[in-house]
């Protein structure tokens, strides 16, 4: 079982404020994209994906390195349209509960 996305907005998570804001956007939708890294991954659609996904070459890690300063600047600015909003298929069900509560709910621990 993979459950990383379930923990993205837990208080203990190191998720950036911009990523958290993107995960909470009303009307957000998931997309498979290589716009940020050159490798296909699931994330949430945002301005960067809309502007660059269609033209992003499949050359990881080169694209990842080229977009790294852009993503860092967007994170510092709290801009969810400029960061990679990685999230798995069940992202819409995430909660901001403590990690132990999420783990119990997922049935991983009793």
UniProtKB/TrEMBL annotation:
Which superkingdom heads the taxonomic lineage of this protein's source? Answer: Bacteria
Note the PANTHER family from the entry: NITRONATE MONOOXYGENASE-RELATED
InterPro entries assigned = Aldolase_TIM
Protein name from the UniProt record? Nitronate monooxygenase domain-containing protein
